[in-house]
Design brief:
Layout lengths: L3 E9 L4 E6 L5 E7 L4 E2 L5 E2 L2 H17 L3 E10 L4 E4 L18 H10 L3 H8 L9 H11 L1 H6 L2 E4 H10 L4 E2 H4 L6 E2 L4 E2 L1 H5 L9 E2 L4 E3 L8 E3 L2 E2 H12 L5 E5 L3 E5 L8 H5 L2 E5 L5 E7 L1 H15 L14 H10 L26 H21 L9 E6 L5 H10 L4 E6 L3 H9 L1 H4 L10 E5 L8
Parallel strand pairs: 1-6, 6-14, 6-15, 9-12, 16-20, 20-21
Antiparallel strand pairs: 1-2, 2-3, 4-5, 7-8, 10-11, 13-14, 16-17, 17-19, 18-19, 21-22
Helix pairs in contact: 9-15, 11-13, 13-14
Length: 461
């Protein structure tokens, strides 16, 4: 039997670590999932277990190379951003993989922004909201000022996708999609590292920049295959849509964060947008992508746990709740708080609601989704100011949630809202980025299946 040519893609999320093999038609022919217990850094804060992750990558590849039915042509990586691995001359990590939710010291925060022109100036120039440790550049600044001895031993600070790539290629690079994801490192006006990065000497700790479609020969034993340099997951998830559609669209990528990406809006970010967690990403071809972020997936998980505990249910039960327009109409009629543009994007109203006021769990669940979509309407609205965009594509977890999708369609009645049915868009994006390096066929144009949601059944908002 002739082995099937495939690409192996490691898709590393905060919770699930997945390996996919795609054939030349971008169909999944193998998948494997792993979860690791978190470890703790020197302050006792939870963080990724980098040793478990490294060993899992090696073990998974060894297992794949043993399988005679596959011919691995290339390997690539996508992972969450805002996370640096600090490696020494030998490529060994010098610190834990600090969590991007780790509290940032107030004094260091104040020192940084006072030195470099203030929060609004740095945020505007770097298209990065002021996010503390979520600005990975400030993590590196912190290492320099709090742990100078370790900083002096750092050969390179590698974003997580590029560290994973290094494990297999033996070469260290930076990529534009990771540099451009709310790092506070990149000056979008000048298209280069910001002055503060150079003044602090951090540019010397950042590996040379390569294009997202670059490949290298493999150092890890196996057949003759290519290795991509890895991509930031949100930018990777956008690639299948850029390949499939040329008319302006917005992608709502949903997971722990719901991130609205508009690759057709290149206008500078305003102070208001930056204060409301808008930012610019850099897509794999190097152009900026205006984006807004909402911690909606996390909020959803926390509040579903609360509902489940109240009604003595398993959280999995709520995945199958069907949309009920009558419940929505009833809840809208009961709503005493007038909707305004001042709805908080930090947490949904639902966290303050008394669950005993709902008639049943279906009502409570619909109210949760209504509160989340109220936030989403505001967040997405920041990158939908250009009337040329007529389509919203939703991928990820919420795309499979009928209650969310119907409510989103009602929130944007003049825009076509569709759930994008695509197996693992983030991983496919990483495969597409290096298509020419492993695939003998032309780029496919049937990657996505769309399910359209319209404003029906008398829903009003």
């Amino acid at each position: 039997m002739t082995p099937t040519p495939v690409i192996a893609v490691f898709d590393v999320g905060k919770t699930n670590k997945k390996l996919f093999l795609f054939n030349e038609d971008y169909k999944i022919v193998y998948e494997k999932s792993a979860r690791f217990n978190e470890t703790a850094d020197e302050d006792g804060d939870p963080c990724e277990n980098i040793d478990s992750l490294r060993l899992s990558v090696f073990d998974s590849l060894r297992e794949i190379f043993k399988r005679k039915e596959f011919d691995v042509k290339a390997v690539n990586f996508s992972s969450y951003g805002a996370s640096f691995v600090y490696v020494d001359e030998d490529g060994a990590p010098l610190t834990p993989l600090y969590n991007y939710l780790k509290t940032y010291p107030d004094e260091l925060h104040k020192q940084f922004y006072e030195t470099y022109g203030g929060e609004s100036t740095v945020a505007r120039q770097t298209s990065s909201p002021v996010l503390g440790s979520l600005n990975s550049g400030l993590q590196l600044y912190r290492l320099k000022h709090e742990q100078p001895e370790i900083f002096s031993r750092v050969k390179y600070a590698l974003h997580l996708p590029q560290y994973l790539s290094y494990l297999i290629s033996g070469q260290m690079f930076s990529d534009v999609t990771s540099i451009g994801c709310h790092t506070s490192l990149w000056d979008f006006e000048r298209n280069s590292y910001h002055d503060w990065v150079v003044k602090e000497g951090l540019d010397e700790k950042l590996a040379p920049v390569r294009n997202a479609d670059a490949v290298m020969p493999a150092a890890f034993p196996g057949n003759s295959y290519s290795v991509g340099i890895g991509l930031h997951d949100s930018s990777s998830a956008l690639i299948p849509y850029l390949v499939s559609f040329t008319e302006p669209f917005v992608l709502l990528s949903t997971g722990t964060w719901t991130i609205t990406l508009n690759p057709f809006d290149h206008s500078p970010l305003t102070d208001e947008e930056l204060k409301n967690d808008c930012l610019n990403y850099i897509q794999y071809k190097g152009q900026p992508v205006k984006a807004s972020r909402l911690f909606a997936g996390y909020e959803y998980e926390q509040q579903v746990k609360r509902i489940a505990a109240h009604y003595n249910q398993n959280t999995a039960h709520y995945r199958t709740i069907r949309f009920d327009a009558d419940i929505v109409a009833k809840l809208l009629a009961q709503e005493t708080v007038k909707k305004t543009g001042a709805t908080s994007l930090q947490a949904s109203v639902f966290g303050q609601r008394d669950l005993s006021t709902f008639a049943n769990e279906e009502e409570a669940y619909h109210r949760l989704m209504m509160d989340i979509v109220d936030q989403q309407k505001i967040s997405t609205g920041y990158v939908l100011k250009d009337n040329s965009v007529k389509r919203i594509f939703v991928d990820g977890g919420f795309s499979k949630n009928a209650v969310y999708m119907h409510l989103l369609a009602a929130a944007f009645p003049h825009t076509e809202v569709s759930a994008a049915s695509m197996a693992q868009a983030t991983a496919v994006g990483a495969a597409l980025a290096i298509h020419k390096a492993w695939n003998s066929k032309p780029l496919p144009h049937d990657l996505l299946e769309l399910k359209f949601y319209s404003v029906t059944q008398g829903i009003t908002t």
